[in-house]
């Protein structure tokens, strides 16, 4: 309990990062698309660290809770830190449906064009302005979940993971479900992880979803471990206590935790030295087909846990490397000061604390008072 209380103090769960709002004109769509871009609170702590991108469809209603929960989960190293991007349009039926039907002839069937916009225009634009990595996730709910399901079954998609929350798979007499029997076995441009969920929706929503799960089970197996070529990995959950409107909140949290299951190298108190942490994530990179470097929050979580479990030398090593990777992080410098202090290196602790104070004042850090408090305590120790 002592460790838990200490860590709750040091790992802030509030999100203070930058959020940009802008509009991008798509030549493919000949339309203006509204964007909200939320940068991780560690973004300014490095000048060269690149972050995965999470695209949130229906951003006007879904962006804020997803961005906040990404901040919470990544603070505790449950998932990687990410740049979260909300995408909004007033033509959601047109852009999110894969086929055109007579009843909505002029406002349906634009999913392929919208996919091309996301992959060819949006991701490229984000990469030019922000430090993005080559790992992209897409999430959508309802009609947007239908679209993300379409993307998941598109063999040449550039997305690495897709989330489909209560997808409207009933569209056009279950067209996508029927098409999936063919698409599931197509050779893919890259491996993909796909999370699907359904809440308490009745009738065609539930029956189409059940038919899709059966297609996946028949085609790829019931263990969600991918096909023979390990190209498509799928996972699904049922939320019977949630409604169609409430399920995006729970669904996205569970989706991210499922897609990154086992991501935290030290979920409790069985701490590791730095070399074992790096070995752990080399194995994760092999599992995901993408090399994830250690994020600032991971250095902080694992360094402090090691320190408070009396492995202070491990904590110093982890946090010292963290400050080299993220030299502008007042939090990592302050945590390093804690580790040095508990390791009996008071002089080094004061130097790290001074750096933390300098950075905290420069950025008007929300942690300034706590950092100043530790600096004062260390200076008092030095005078004894």
Give the termini separation.
31 Å
Most strands sheet: 8 strands, mixed
Structural class: alpha/beta
Shape: elongated
Q: Work out the number of β strands.
A: 8
Please give the order of strands in the largest beta sheet: 1-2-4-3-5-6-7-8
> Beta fraction of the residues?
15-25%
The parts where pLDDT drops under 50 for at least 5 residues are 1-16, 225-229
Order of helices and strands: HEEEHEHHEHEHEHEHHHHHHH
Mean pLDDT: 91
The helicity comes to 40-55%
- Computed over alpha carbons, the radius of gyration is 23 Å
Number of helices: 14
What's a concise summary of this model?
The chain has helices at residues 2-10, 59-75, 92-96, 111-129, 143-152, 171-183, 203-220, 247-259, 274-288, 296-308, 312-325, 330-342, 346-363, 368-383, and strands spanning 19-26, 31-38, 51-57, 83-88, 132-141, 161-165, 192-198, 232-238.
How are the elements arranged and paired?
Layout lengths: L1 H9 L8 E8 L4 E8 L12 E7 L1 H17 L7 E6 L3 H5 L14 H19 L2 E10 L1 H10 L8 E5 L5 H13 L8 E7 L4 H18 L11 E7 L8 H13 L14 H15 L7 H13 L3 H14 L4 H13 L3 H18 L4 H16 L1
Parallel strand pairs: 3-4, 3-5, 5-6, 6-7, 7-8
Antiparallel strand pairs: 1-2, 2-4
Helix pairs in contact: 2-8, 6-7, 10-11, 10-12, 11-12, 12-13, 13-14
């Amino acid at each position: 309990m002592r460790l838990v209380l200490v860590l709750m103090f040091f790992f802030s769960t509030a999100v203070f990062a930058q959020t940009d709002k802008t509009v991008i004109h798509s030549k493919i769509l000949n339309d203006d698309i509204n964007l909200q871009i939320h940068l991780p609170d560690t973004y300014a702590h490095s000048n060269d660290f690149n972050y995965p991108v999470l695209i949130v469809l229906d951003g006007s209603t879904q962006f804020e809770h997803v961005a906040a929960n990404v901040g919470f989960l990544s603070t505790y190293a449950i998932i990687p830190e990410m740049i979260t991007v909300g995408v909004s349009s007033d033509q959601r039926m047109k852009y999110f449906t894969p086929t055109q039907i007579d009843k909505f002839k002029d406002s349906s069937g634009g999913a392929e064009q919208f996919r091309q916009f996301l992959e060819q225009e949006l991701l490229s634009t984000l990469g030019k302005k922000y430090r993005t990595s080559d790992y992209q996730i897409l999430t959508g709910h309802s009609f947007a979940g239908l679209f993300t399901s379409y993307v998941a079954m598109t063999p040449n998609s550039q997305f690495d993971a897709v989330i489909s929350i209560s997808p409207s798979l009933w569209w056009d007499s279950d067209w996508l479900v029927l098409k999936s029997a063919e698409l599931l076995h197509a050779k893919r441009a890259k491996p993909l992880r796909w999370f699907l969920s359904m809440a308490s929706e009745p009738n065609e929503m539930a029956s189409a979803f059940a038919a899709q799960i059966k297609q996946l089970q028949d085609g790829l197996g019931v263990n969600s471990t991918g096909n023979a070529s390990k190209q498509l990995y799928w996972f699904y959950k049922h939320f019977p206590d949630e409604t169609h409107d409430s399920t995006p909140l729970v669904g996205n949290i569970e989706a991210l935790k499922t897609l990154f299951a086992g991501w935290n190298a030290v979920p409790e108190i069985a701490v590791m030295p730095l070399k074992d942490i790096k070995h752990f994530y080399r194995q994760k990179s092999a599992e995901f087909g993408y090399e994830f470097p250690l994020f600032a929050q991971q250095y902080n979580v694992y360094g402090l846990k090691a320190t408070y479990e009396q492995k202070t030398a491990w904590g110093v090593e982890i946090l010292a490397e963290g400050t080299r990777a993220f030299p502008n992080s007042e939090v990592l410098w302050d945590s390093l000061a804690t580790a040095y202090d508990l390791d009996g290196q008071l002089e080094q602790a004061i130097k790290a604390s001074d750096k933390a104070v300098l950075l905290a004042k420069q950025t008007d850090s929300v942690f300034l008072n706590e950092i100043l408090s530790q600096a004062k305590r260390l200076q008092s120790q030095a005078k004894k």
